[in-house]
Amino acid sequence: MILFEITVPCIELKKYCKWCRKHTIHKEAKR
């Protein structure tokens, strides 16, 4: 899911920052 990535703290996000930031964040921003 996408919400799980947004819910996790910044520390966890840093791990996915590689792609999560460009995929998840973008998808959520569009919504």
Automatic annotation (TrEMBL):
It holds the Pfam family Ribosomal_L33. Keywords: Ribonucleoprotein, Ribosomal protein. GO terms for cellular component: cytoplasm; ribonucleoprotein complex; ribosome. The keyword Ribonucleoprotein applies. InterPro entries: Ribosomal_bL33 (IPR001705), Ribosomal_bL33_sf (IPR038584), Ribosomal_zn-bd (IPR011332). GO terms for molecular function: structural constituent of ribosome. GO terms for biological process: translation. Belongs to the bacterial ribosomal protein bL33 family. NCBIfam families: rpmG_bact. This is Large ribosomal subunit protein bL33.
